[in-house]
Amino acid sequence: MKTDFVVIGSGIAGLNFALEASKYGKVTLITKKEIMDSNTNKAQGGIAAVLDRHDSTESHVEDTLKTGCYHNDIEAVEYLVKEGPKMIKKLLDYGTPFEQKSGVLKLTREGGHKCRRVAYSGDHTGHAIEKTLVDVVKENENIEVLEDTMALDLIVKDGKCYGVQYLQGKKVGELYGKAVILATGGAGYLFAKTTNPDIATADGLAMAARAGAKIEDMEFLQFHPTALSKNGHDPFLISEAVRGEGGKLKNSKGKRFMHKYHEMKELAPRDIVARAIAKEALNGPVTLDISHEDSEFLKTRFPTIYETLIEIGIDMTKEPIPVSPAAHYTCGGVKVNLDGETNIGNLYAFGEVSRTGVHGANRLASNSLLESIVFSNNIIKAVKNLEHEVEEVPVEKQEFSDFDAANLKKEIRQIMWDHVGLIRNEKGLKTSIQKLRSIEENLPKGVNKDLIEAKNMAIAGRIIAEAALKRKKSLGCHFRDDEI
Ligand code: FAD
Ligand code: SIN
User: Fold this and answer.
1) How many domains does the chain have?
2) Which atom of ligand 2 is nearest to the CA of 366?
């Protein structure tokens, strides 16, 4: 198959790129499950931008840098913040139902932000954005969407990308294009406890690594402080906005503790809150309590969280919610410049799979949806590719395999949680690298969805562990308990 733009992934980055690029050429977007399956669809809190007249570009830039421990690329941060308000307007124009009062956007507050800066739609902002973009994409005649179509490997020769090899059912095929866009999201599902859905297996990152792309900052894997902690239940995210609207963290004695760790208390940057919770949890379960707020307000402000908790017997309007940290966001990724260009010709990366330099050592809350839309909107360089013809290069055909890799994925997720989690040290990191390498080396030949995901998870997991081993001192969301 041939097209102009090959887009891999149907989250906010892939959908927004597709919409922009469709103005110039034909887009073929492939996505490994259904079109709505993405981290974007699960996002709760909102999307940050300077939207209040009392707020300023300087203030958003400073909060982003401070949370990122000044490990960020300042040029990228300034670009992100400057473009932010325009992107919110764009999402509103497409029809995203951000909450408003008398025509003015309502804003919430999250950790690390000095002021209310986050536009939202209940506690399902990501779903509101994803659904809006999907509806617009489906109307667009220049965009073809192929669901249940999994990218296996990038087709790269002599430092240039020509397309992607994909799996559809049991069939392996090739899709060639003038520009190839990785928008495959992050690596949260590499960890046994995560807020991410099962699509987040770092496929794009591993494919890019196999193709020789530069990858940076992978040690900065962010753990969200407040995921549900109840035996037998997934670590469903309890949005930071719950703390933004007054939720208090309490230890097993029912006492608040965040004042001991940071002046911003519950709204300190995520890494600090996550480690504080882990420390307090050594003496018994930690809870998040917002039951002092009006119950009708809570039910309308956090409908998804309220309903999900009620289903498992927790009424957040009356009782505290048991919480603990879970893997959440990949700050590092495939290194790109402001135009999304990687070091491989014709290959671009946008969204969570990319490393733009915006997040530094720790991402500021609600800056991720913003990063994904701001950078995927900058398609100038990708459009330049239209000047040449689509070229096809021969590839080695991969064969379908019946091998069941489900248990391998489980094993990798446990290794990552045990040794590459919130608190790391040399011994654990070395153990994980050795185990992940052994899994990778012993994988059978052939392809199927689980088998490819297991391979990608082993490779990406090793890359995270190696980066964490190399950085001997703690910084942001990378924490070593053995630093000298
Ligand atoms: P995604 O939305 O993850 O999309 C990736 C796409 O690539 C998916 O469609 C996937 O199926 C596809 N894909 C992956 N591998 C392949 C393959 N091999 N072949 C084909 N397709 C593939 N950020 C905020 O800014 N604010 C929030 O409030 C917020 N809340 C969050 C809450 C939760 C529970 C989670 C998990 C994340 C949250 N985030 C939030 C982070 C944010 O949602 C993500 O960083 C962002 O949505 C990433 O968008 P993306 O387009 O890069 O990737
Ligand atoms: C949340 O709602 O707490 C998630 C926000 C984010 O990841 O930015």
Assistant:
1) 2
2) 8
